[in-house]
């Protein structure tokens, strides 16, 4: 299947933003065609000659041609890898630089809202609250971009210690209740008793759980119902979150964990989102030795689940 995808040149060119003749798939086909052509020509020419010298020379010529083409393909790949590395480094530096002024703005607006609230009229208060929530969104985006750069550079650090996953889930539910109430979404938490602690990274797991909670609420329209389960199954803990929201179109489900993926059915009405949360979550759960998966039916809802080993 992957091989067939590699030969879909139009799709490859669109994804990489290059012309069809510049795609790796096209170069691969050209390399194959040239090799077959040169081999055939060599065969027919050498058939007319009995001398072994001629065959050796013509075969060497073929090898040289293949090496030259192979070398240019390797140089192209080398260039792509270098560019990709430069891009990750750029994203990392730019995000770091953006984080400092954004944190300062956030700090100033929070100070105004907490200490000088009384001196503000209604309009000023609304404006400052808007600045505060937009700054929070920007900080989240910058942090997500930093995490993506860390994942791509293999620099994401995990601090493992005994973790109470039930506590993380319970606190995430409490934190999201105001948003759920505002959107008329009911949350049910169903956990088996005596959930054991696991050796994991609490901060990173909180990111994953928060993301799954946020998505369940964000992509559930009015009168929503969200059911959360945390159970012990064999040597793992299994978390799942079920919503009766908009679901994900079947033909797009294969790309859900891709970077920047946002499904067609939500971009129309839900502008808030970067398409990075699930990409980061999948990497975190993978690095912590677990698995993440989902089931979804468009118009009916989705269930996102992950499992983590109890002993790591
Ligand atoms: P974001 O929510 O910021 O767009 P995510 O990576 O968290 O990014 O999710 C990627 C996409 O997967 C979303 O844009 C949405 O199309 C789809 N998605 C994720 N969770 C759900 C859900 N619970 N219900 C429906 N669609 C979802």
CATH class of the largest domain: Alpha Beta
What structural class do you assign from the helix and strand content?
alpha+beta
SS strand fraction: 15-25%
Query: For the record, what is the CATH homologous superfamily label of the largest domain?
Result: Histidine kinase-like ATPase, C-terminal domain
Major sheet: 5 strands, mixed
Q: What compounds sit in this structure?
A: adenosine-5'-diphosphate
Question: How many discrete structural domains?
Answer: 2
Rg from alpha-carbon coordinates = 27 Å
The assigned CATH architecture of the largest domain is: 2-Layer Sandwich
Mean model confidence by pLDDT: 88
Find the count of extended strands (DSSP E, 2+ residues). 7
Instruction: Predict the CATH topology of the largest domain.
Output: Heat Shock Protein 90
How do the SSEs run, as a string of H and E?
Answer: HHHHHEHEEHEEHHEE
> Largest sheet, order of strands side by side?
2-4-5-7-6
Individual helix count: 9
Low-confidence parts lasting 5 or more residues at pLDDT below 50?
none
Helix content: 55-70%
Characterise the protein shown here.
With about 300 residues, the protein is of the alpha+beta class. It contains nine helices and seven strands, in the order αααααβαββαββααββ. α3 (about 25-45) packs antiparallel against α4 (about 50-115), α4 packs antiparallel against α5 (about 120-150) and α5 crosses α9. The two termini are about 35 Å apart. The mean pLDDT is about 90. The structure holds adenosine-5'-diphosphate (ADP).
């Amino acid at each position: 299947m992957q091989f067939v995808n590699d030969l879909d040149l139009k799709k490859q060119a669109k994804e990489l933003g290059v012309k069809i003749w510049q795609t790796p798939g096209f170069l691969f086909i050209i390399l194959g065609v040239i090799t077959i052509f040169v081999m055939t020509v060599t065969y027919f020419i050498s058939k007319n000659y009995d001398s072994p010298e001629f065959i050796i020379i013509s075969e060497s010529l073929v090898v040289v041609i293949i090496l030259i083409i192979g070398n240019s393909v390797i140089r192209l790949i080398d260039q792509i890898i270098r560019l990709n590395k430069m891009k990750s480094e750029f994203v990392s530096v730019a995000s770091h630089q953006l984080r400092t002024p954004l944190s300062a703005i956030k700090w100033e607006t929070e100070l105004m809202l907490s200490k000088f609230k009384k001196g503000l009229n209604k309009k000023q208060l609304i404006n400052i609250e808007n600045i505060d929530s937009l700054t929070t969104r920007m900080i989240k985006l910058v942090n997500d971009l930093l995490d993506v750069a860390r994942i791509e550079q293999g620099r994401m650090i995990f601090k493992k210690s005994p973790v109470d996953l039930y506590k993380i889930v319970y606190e995430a539910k409490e934190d999201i209740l105001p948003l759920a109430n505002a959107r008329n979404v009911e949350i049910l938490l169903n956990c088996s008793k005596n959930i054991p602690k696991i050796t994991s990274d609490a901060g990173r797991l909180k990111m994953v759980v928060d993301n799954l909670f946020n998505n369940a609420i964000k992509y559930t329209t009015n009168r929503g119902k969200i059911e959360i389960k945390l159970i012990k199954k064999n040597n793992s803990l299994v978390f799942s979150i079920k919503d009766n929201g908009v679901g994900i179109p079947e033909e797009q489900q294969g790309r859900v964990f891709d970077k920047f993926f946002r499904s067609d059915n939500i971009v129309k009405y839900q502008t808030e989102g970067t398409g990075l949360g699930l990409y980061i979550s999948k990497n975190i759960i993978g690095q912590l030795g677990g698995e993440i998966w989902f089931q979804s039916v468009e118009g009916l809802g989705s269930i996102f689940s992950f499992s983590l080993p109890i002993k790591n």
